[in-house]
Structure formats: structure tokens, C-alpha cells
Design brief:
Blueprint (H helix, E strand, L loop, with lengths): L6 E2 L4 E2 L4 E2 L4 E2 L4 E2 L3 E2 L4 E2 L4 E2 L4 E2 L4 E2 L4 E2 L3 E3 L4 E2 L4 E2 L25 E3 L4 E2 L4 E2 L4 E2 L4 E2 L4 E2 L7 E4 L4 E5 L6
Parallel strand pairs: 1-4, 2-5, 3-6, 4-7, 5-8, 6-9, 7-10, 8-11, 9-12, 10-13, 12-15, 13-16, 14-17, 15-18, 16-19, 17-20, 19-21
Antiparallel strand pairs: 21-22
Length: 169
Amino acid sequence: MTPVHGFQGQYQIIAPDVILGSNLRLSSFINLYGCTIGDSTTIGAFVEVQRGAIIGNACKVSSHTFICEGVTLEDEVFVGHGVMFINDRYPRATTGEGTPQQASDWTVSKTTVMRGATIGSGAVIMGGITIGSRAMIGAGAVVTKDVPAGFLVVGVPARVVGPTPDAQP
Ligand SMILES: CC(C)(COP(=O)(O)OP(=O)(O)OC[C@H]1O[C@@H](n2cnc3c(N)ncnc32)[C@H](O)[C@@H]1OP(=O)(O)O)[C@@H](O)C(=O)NCCC(=O)NCCS
């Protein structure tokens, strides 16, 4: 693991295979393994980032969020509190024979959140989704389809309501 140059809390589990950038803010009670985190990014308390997830530069990931395998956050992405990413559309604990599933028994659905996008607190992002650059996801939304760049979506399932509130006229 690369040494952290920035703020680092306590009670962290950061696996030796994690690739960390510089000037990070890593809060307490985080669990990181097999992932990559870019420069000047903040990771809030009680966040888990799984193997293969990639988080870019200058991102902010708020507390209690889960970022799973297959997720890429490009630079300057904001993720609110308690956001859940999903990467297995039809999950099962076991195979048809009743034995615990292995990595080879299911397929990861990959999700990309493009540069500068925002995800509101409590949102659920289904697998295989692309959230466009500077798009915004309302709090509590369940995102089931791609979100176009620069647009705001809200609700369950999430629907486009228009350009983001901070869009230039
Ligand atoms: C979606 C959001 C950007 C809309 O903000 P806004 O443009 O100021 O919207 P308004 O508050 O004026 O509400 C406009 C309408 O959308 C509805 N609305 C607002 N937020 C909503 C949400 N998250 N989900 C569903 N509907 C929402 C309002 O009820 C209102 O409906 P109406 O026109 O039928 O009365 C904002 O409410 C939001 O969810 N932001 C995310 C905040 C967040 O999670 N921050 C994380 C860290 S604290």
C-alpha cells in the first residue's frame, strides 16, 4: 500500500494491494481492498470499496457508501451518504446444487460514473449503468438506466426531470 499523504483516521482496514494516490482524506472505519483511489479524494467513515473498483482524482465519497467491484468513478465525482452500487443483477447465495457461489458463478455488471457527476444520498445504482458527466442523481433515487450528461434524475425508478439545477442557461 502507498503511504497516505493527507488526513488519515483510525480503525481502518486498507489491504496491501490497494493503490492510493496522494493528498487523500481517509476517514475512520473504512474497509478498502484491491481498489484504486486517485489523488486528493475524500473517503468518508464506514465506506467499503471492493476489489477492482476505481475512484479517480478529487472525488468525494460520503459516509456509509458501498462501492463494489466493477464500479469506476471518474475524476471529481461526488457520492452522497449511504449510496449503494449493485453489480449482480440476479444474485444467489448458492449454485443450483446448493454449494456456495464462487466468482466464476456470476458476472459483474460494470458501472461508470463520469467526470463531475453527483449522486445524492441513499441512491441505489443498478449494475451496467453509465452516469454521464456532471449529471445529478436525486437523493433516494433508484437508477435503472443510463443517465445523460448534464441531466438531473429523481425517483424510483429514476426519471429525467431536466438539466441539473446548476446548468448554465
Ligand atoms: C433532486 C434535487 C437536486 C432537486 O433539488 P431542487 O431542484 O432544488 O428541487 P426542489 O426542492 O425545488 O423540488 C422540485 C420537485 O422535485 C421533488 N424532489 C426534490 N428532490 C427529490 C428527490 N430526491 N426525489 C424525488 N423528488 C424530489 C420535490 O418534491 C418537488 O416536487 P413538486 O414540484 O412536485 O413539488 C435535490 O432535492 C436532491 O435530492 N439533492 C441531493 C442532495 C443530497 O443527497 N446531498 C448529499 C449530501 S448532504
